[in-house]
Structures are given as C-alpha cells and as structure tokens.
C-alpha cells in the first residue's frame, strides 16, 4: 500500500522547511555565539551555544524526512 501523494508531498515540504529554518537558526546562533558575542549578555551567548547542536539535530531530522518523502514518491536517487 502506497501513502497518499498529498501526504507525501506535504511531508516533503515540511522536511525542506525544517532544513531551511534550522539552517537559519544555525547561522544566527553561530553569529551570536562567536563574532558578535561581545554585544550579547552571557545568558544569550549560552543559549546560542546550546542552540547550535539542537538546530543541527533538527536539520538532520528534516533531511531524513525529505529523503523518506522522495523515496515514497519513487525518486530513489534523491540525495
């Protein structure tokens, strides 16, 4: 039994959006944590350091969702 195409396409979009937003989060956290650290309080710096691996984990989850959606759509060569 194959999944419904609308659900698969929706999950493909969700995976792509998750990757995009987490990439933006990684860039923002990196900027706050390193080059502009002197402009932010210690609490914000700590939060940005913690946000880096969390956003990287969400990026990986989005990538896996994207790959699973491509597989369900029959696009086996998507990477």
List the helices and strands and how they pair.
Blueprint: H1 5-33, H2 42-72
Helix pairs in contact: 1-2
Brief summary of the model shown:
It is built from two helices and no strands.
Detailed description of the structure:
- By secondary structure, this protein is an all-alpha fold.
- Helices cover 76% and strands 0% of the residues.
- The protein is built from 2 helices and no strands.
- The chain has helices at residues 5-33, 42-72.
- Helix 1 (5-33) packs antiparallel against helix 2 (42-72).
- The radius of gyration is 17 Å and the shape is rod-shaped.
- The two termini are 24 Å apart.
- 11% of the residues are buried.
- The mean pLDDT is 93.
């Amino acid at each position: 039994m194959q999944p419904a195409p609308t659900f698969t396409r929706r999950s493909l979009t969700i995976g792509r959006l998750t990757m995009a937003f987490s990439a933006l989060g990684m860039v923002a956290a990196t900027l706050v944590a390193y080059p502009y650290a002197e402009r932010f309080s210690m609490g914000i710096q700590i939060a940005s350091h913690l946000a880096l691996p969390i956003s990287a984990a969400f990026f990986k989850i989005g990538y896996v969702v994207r790959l699973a959606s491509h597989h369900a759509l029959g696009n086996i060569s998507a990477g």
